[in-house]
Design goal:
Keywords: DNA damage, DNA repair, Hydrolase. This protein has 201 residues and is mainly beta. The protein has a single domain, classed as Methylpurine-DNA glycosylase (MPG) (3-methyladenine DNA Glycosylase, Chain A, Roll). Helices cover 11% and strands 29% of the residues. It is built from three helices and eight strands; from the N terminus they run αβββββααβββ. Strands 1, 2, 3, 4, 5, 6, 7 and 8 form an eight-stranded antiparallel beta sheet that branches. The protein binds a DNA duplex (13 and 13 nucleotides) through strand 3, strand 4, strand 5 and helix 3.
Length: 201
DNA sequence: GTTATGATCTCCT
DNA sequence: GGAGATCATAACG
């Protein structure tokens, strides 16, 4: 059921980012399993991508996780407030990663609702990278954890999103990346209510 | 040691 | 439509 390690070791991050659409993502903390299927991702293509933390081969205590062998999680804090979950791909030394921007929750909705302090469940419970991490209970404590662990993993449940329902678009929040900000490295499911909206200008 | 800033979200007007 | 929250990280002195 879990995706095999080899799945993550493809060199084609962008292709993987698209393929991850429709795969299931689960976490287990304190015995509570929560998760759903991925409806939005963004690829960060290693050292040649200005939007990537590893651009130009930058390797620091934080980004060293991205250089690990594919199949681990890269979690970091952004804006001092939000944790973000990435899937590291490719082989050791190749800092490719995929940001999980949104999932369609299917399991443990009540737990996620409590984690988000929401009175009512609305689509924004797992809409946007910061929200996904919070709803799933993900924090920097699981940075660099293996995806074949029982804490955080992905599954292929045979859900197929039709090719025509997967849209490619420019990434969000990376204006500082110059030309690379325009690359169509963001993928999402057309019409899915959990897909985040691009930020305003 | 100091300083600028971000792969964002939420609430307010 | 817009600002504030809030801090680890990275670059620099």
């Amino acid at each position: 059921m879990k995706l095999p390690e080899a799945y993550y070791q493809s060199d084609d991050v962008v292709g993987l980012a698209k393929d991850l659409i429709g795969k299931y993502l689960f976490t287990r903390f304190d015995g509570m399993v929560t998760g759903g299927y991925i409806v939005e991702t963004e690829a960060y293509a290693g050292v040649i991508d200005k939007a990537s933390h590893a651009f130009g081969g930058r390797n620091t205590p934080r980004t060293s996780t991205m250089y690990l062998n594919g199949g681990v999680a890269y979690v970091y804090l952004c804006y001092g407030i939000h944790e973000m979950l990435n899937i590291v791909t490719s082989v050791e030394g190749q800092p490719h990663a995929i940001l999980i921007r949104a999932i369609n929750p299917t399991l443990g909705l009540d737990v996620m609702q409590a984690r988000r302090n929401m009175a009512v469940i609305k689509p924004n419970i797992t809409m946007g990278p910061g929200s996904v991490a919070k709803a799933l209970g993900i924090s920097r404590k699981v940075n660099a954890i293996s995806l074949k662990s029982d804490i955080l993993w992905l599954e292929d449940k045979g859900l197929v999103i039709s090719e025509s329902d997967i849209i490619a678009a420019p990434r969000v929040g990376v204006d500082y990346a110059g030309d690379d900000a325009l690359l169509p490295y963001r993928f999402y499911v057309k019409g899915n209510p959990y897909v985040s909206k691009p930020r305003k200008p």
